[in-house]
Amino acid sequence: MLARKELDSIRERTLRGRKEKLLKGILPGQGGDMIGYRINKETWKREIHEEEAEIIKRIFEEAASGKTYRQITLDLQAEGIPSPGELLKRNYKTPKTPRWHRSAVAAIITNPAYAGTTLAQVWDKDETGKRIKNDSSKIVELDDVTPAIVSRELWEKANETKQKRLSADTTRNETNFIFCVVWSTASAVSARCAPNKPERSGHSAAHLRQMSLWESLAARLQ
Questions:
Q1: Closest C-alpha to 177, from 206, 137, 217, 211
Q2: What is residue 125's three-state secondary structure?
Q3: What span, in angstroms and rounded, lies between the C-alpha atoms of 104 and 87?
Q4: Count of CB atoms situated within 10 Å of the CB of 70
Q5: pLDDT for 118-141, tens place per residue?
Q6: Main-chain dihedrals φ then ψ at residue 48, nearest 5 degrees
Q7: Which residue, 83, 105, 174, 185, could crosslink 98 as a Cys pair with Cβ 3.0–4.6 Å?
Q8: pLDDT above 80: residue 4
């Protein structure tokens, strides 16, 4: 019981400290470091790390040009570009070799801080300790905390390209699903209705009707 009260007290003090920092326009938390930046412990503002900033620019330019997250990730790994875990010298709970992952590339491209917009209190934890995203009413934008590495135009283009790719993937998946459903239906109908006598072409009447249905559907969906 005492331990629970102490934990609640610590949490309350932590939240109070975060709110005080936010009111002063200071980045809350224990660090704020992210690839491309280092936190200034005196001003609590991010400063650009020039060498890492070049990696960030490259990622955004490639995403804006239409490269997929997977392609960007594979290229970075193949060229031996240090991963965020290596550059920030993160300590992992379980030993592992830091490497680029698609999720890391996605996190960089979708992070508005790289275009100069600093958002605080984006994430929180529920009663079970699970990480959850706050609604927009709790998210706070801090001014003059993170200098931009890429322009707003490049950031938007990289993310717009991502949305177009997701939309194209969804459309393609839906079309493939329709093809599969109709193909299965056509196969079942043809098998039940067609005579077993083969045609001179070497194909059964059922197979020919099946092919005709498939070609007709394909032409209409193009």
A1: 217
A2: strand
A3: 13
A4: 10
A5: 887 777 777 787 878 888 877 878
A6: -70, 135
A7: 83
A8: no
